[in-house]
Amino acid sequence: MSSARQSATPPGAEAAPGGAGATPRPGALRALFVYRLISRAYFHLPVLFAFLYLHHLGIALAQTLLALYGFTVMVSGAFVGRFSAAFGPRTLLVGGEIVKAAGLLLIGTVAGGTPGLVAGQILSGFGYALTASVESPLVGVLEPDRERASKIQARTQSWIFAVVMVSGIAGAVIFQHTRLTVFLLSALACAAAATAATGIGSVRLPAARPSANANAHAEKGSWTGGAGWWIAYYVCLRGVALAAFVGFIPYLLFVRTKVSLALFGVLLAVFNVAALLVARWTAKLLRTKPAALLLAATLACVAASLVLLATTSRLVPVIVAIALLGLGAGAARPLTQDGLSALDGPTRGRVTVRMEQLTGSANTLVLVLGGLGLGAGHVPAVMWGSAAVVAVTGVVILAARPGARTASPAQALN
Q: How far is the C-alpha of 23 from the C-alpha of 202, rounded, in Å?
């Protein structure tokens, strides 16, 4: 990663709320890259369901607690933007990581019993909402060139999958010996990420104001900038896929199949390996294959994964199902970011933030309903139902796609 090459104030920064925008300091983009990687060291995430289940909370309550994180992200989206305007991105990144760390410590120590777990999930979700509200928009501010910003996003995403994979495997192995340590390690990663975020400097995000490009799309979709189709695709696919990864698959492996924790971590790592590989190849595929074909393939991968999980519990098919889920979920982000590339940097950042909030809403709904079904013993019905949601919604989204024969997703927005 190279630092932002322009010494002039990024476009729009001079109108940032709270005063004149500051010129990005040398190395700010590199600091953001380091921050994003460290902040994804989720040692606790693969074993979070197992941790809750081992505390005898019941399947439905455990899934609801998992869903509480996404619900908090969704609700927080209504007001975290005001914090950015008042305090600036660096403060939100540092403060968000501190809040996340506090939540992780509450969960790991089970301080206060179930109410403490609830508070921990709320704090973790709120902390993430704070950081997510500025993280993606910052890339467009620190690197105004759209093409370079898109490449940075794609490259960073590949590294993020690698960090999540390594920390997840390590967390599963460590969890066998001591449960608290995985939460302590994740909290330490939050502290390290907060430290890295201080290197970004006092740069401010530009004020939300109409641009020529935004005006061109005004009639097509208010805050979406005309990219509503891409947002619907992302929310549908990622909302279901992440619910399966965080809640459904851990239940099937840990409760139903009763695999060891070490194997449990390795199996979940298959998801991240597949996501890492497909994220690295998506940009190349977009140059040779129609976007609609690639999107249909990702939807088919996720639906097929859920069908496999509904019909078998044998190890090899389950590994294939996890890999398919990783391929579909891993390609969704770079595909969508490419589809949003016609938007100017600040608009693309705001759309990305809102898109993640909606994904949290979808994830919450799927986890809660799925948890009720799993708790009642209707495992195949939950998987078939989730697969049907992806398949039916995917068909509707693809059929509604504007400019279906357009060669590139960026052109479809013009």
A: 8
pLDDT digits (tens, 9 = 90+) for 93-112: 999 999 999 999 999 998 77
Distance CA 230, CA 142 (A): 24
DSSP state of 343: S
DSSP state of 257: I
Token pair listed for 310 = 């509904």
Sequence-separated (6 or more) residues with CB below 8 Å from residue 360: 69, 70, 71, 72, 73, 74, 77, 125
The single residue listed with the structure tokens 């660096």 is 90
Does the CA dihedral 406-409-410-414 come out positive or negative? positive
Q: Count of alpha carbons within 13 Å of 280, Cβ hemisphere only?
A: 10
At 245, list the tokens: 């990864």
Would you place residue 409 in the very low, low, confident or very high pLDDT band (cuts 50, 70, 90)? Answer: very low
Give phi and psi for 242, each to the nearest 5: -70, -30
Does residue 17 come out as left (phi exceeding 0), alpha (psi in the -120 to 50 range) or beta?
beta
Q: What CA–CA distance (Å, rounded) separates 229 from 404?
A: 11
Q: Shortest CA distance to 24 belongs to which of 204, 283, 280?
A: 204
For the whole model, what pTM was predicted? 0.76
Distance of alpha carbon 172 from alpha carbon 182, whole angstroms: 8
Residue among 249, 232, 354 at smallest CA distance from 305: 249
**Backbone φ, ψ for residue 339 (5° rounding):** -65, -25
